[in-house]
UniProtKB/TrEMBL annotation:
GO term, biological process aspect, one: regulation of DNA-templated transcription
GO molecular function: DNA binding
InterPro entries: AB_hydrolase_fold, Sig_transdc_resp-reg_C-effctor, Tscrpt_reg_LuxR_C, WH-like_DNA-bd_sf
SUPFAM superfamilies in alphabetical order: alpha/beta-Hydrolases (SSF53474), C-terminal effector domain of the bipartite response regulators (SSF46894)
Domain of life: Bacteria
Coiled coil region boundaries: none
Species annotation: Roseovarius nubinhibens
Domain HTH luxR-type, chain residue ranges per copy: 186-243
Protein name, per record: HTH luxR-type domain-containing protein
């Protein structure tokens, strides 16, 4: 379910599929309710999972940041103006559009010459399906020869013409302890399953992961299947894209949280016995306000609010939840209970 929420943000054309899945989820919740629901005048009679509520809220924030209200660019314009690695190929590997980053990286070379043999084979197979309906081909992840880098390739509709084009995006990400915690809390991954995800993102296949970890390929395959089941991703390509997207929303830059925002940071020893990291922003004598971060983005959203907050003369204090950033993880007390205690102590 969580994977479907973000998939509908990444790929708006999948919204109808998400609504079907959401309808099934609601029906299942109603069927398994302990007693008949009397929803008259009760907006919360069903009791939506609070974890899903957090993800829905985060997805809405992402949509706002993407500016879906703005006039939609053509795909070629979007690729050409992108500040990230993007490439659009037509039949015969003809370049239809490319970002400046992709152009500089390719240096005039055909893409297939930069891929490893298996990646080049997958790319040729995808180019051979350009007459197909885009939804009929699953996205593939291509490995670059000599680099721990991945490209996600998928068929997309070609505007104003029949057939499709191949859209390629670089899967750039920064693996960090904060990213690990986010994935564990979002999908309840075990340490072994988290290791499989990390290796997949680094470009290793299941056989290589088995050799590197000293486990059997059968064990690694079962762990990979468990990851797909927990995330709701239908395959490894979709899993990699989902995880990279979520990591980049958690930490848009590869710097530590708050490093590029000019935030003051300190570590406080709280009454719970845990250390809590606290960021602050704005004039020291400004009106103090608390900023409570979400599950995925941390304090990075302050980059969009810094100017407005400063003009308002506010002193923003941003405590970090247990288990995030440099705030200690609580082992026995529930996270929200500990965090609430920290907030009360911080305010008083």
């Amino acid at each position: 379910m969580i994977a479907a929420i973000y998939d509908s943000v990444i790929r708006p054309e999948r919204y109808a599929d998400f609504m079907d899945l959401w309808g099934d989820h609601i029906c299942e919740a109603m069927e398994t309710a302990p007693e008949p629901l009397d929803t008259a005048g009760q907006s919360d009679a069903l009791g939506i999972d609070p974890v899903l509520t957090e993800h829905f809220t985060r997805a809405l924030m992402i949509l706002d940041q993407l500016g879906r209200q703005k006039p939609r660019q053509s795909l070629k314009e979007e690729v050409a103006q992108s500040e990230t690695w993007m490439l659009l190929l037509g039949r015969g590997s003809r370049v239809l559009a490319q970002s400046r980053v992709a152009q500089d990286w390719l240096g005039g070379q055909p893409l297939q010459e930069r891929l490893d043999p298996h990646g080049a084979e997958l790319m040729e197979a995808l180019l051979g399906r350009l007459a197909d309906v885009p939804g009929d081909a699953s996205p593939v992840v291509l490995a670059v020869e000599g680099e721990l880098r991945h490209l996600l390739a998928r068929l997309v509709p070609l505007e104003g013409a029949t057939g499709s084009a191949v859209l390629l995006e670089s899967l750039d990400y920064h693996w960090s302890p904060a990213a690990e915690r986010m994935l564990v809390q979002s999908f309840a991954l075990s340490r072994a399953e988290l290791s499989v995800v990390e290796h997949l993102l680094a470009g290793h296949n299941l056989g290589a992961i088995a050799e590197m970890t000293g486990k059997s390929k059968h064990t690694i395959r079962n762990q990979a299947k468990a990851v797909l089941a927990k995330t709701g991703a239908p395959g490894q390509a979709e899993l990699i894209r989902l995880v990279v997207y979520m990591i980049n929303q958690l930490s848009p830059s590869q710097a530590p949280p708050g490093a590029s925002l000019g935030l003051d940071a300190q570590i406080l020893r709280m009454g719970t016995g845990l250390n809590m990291q606290v960021f602050s922003l704005g004039p020291p004598d400004g009106m103090p306000v608390l900023f409570l971060h979400g599950m995925l983005e941390g304090v990075a959203v302050l980059r969009h609010l810094e100017e407005v907050l400063s003009r308002a003369g506010l002193r923003v204090v941003a405590p970090i939840r247990p288990g995030y950033g440099q705030s200690e993880q609580c082992d026995e007390t529930p996270v929200l209970e500990s965090f609430m205690a920290h907030l009360v102590e911080l305010i008083s």
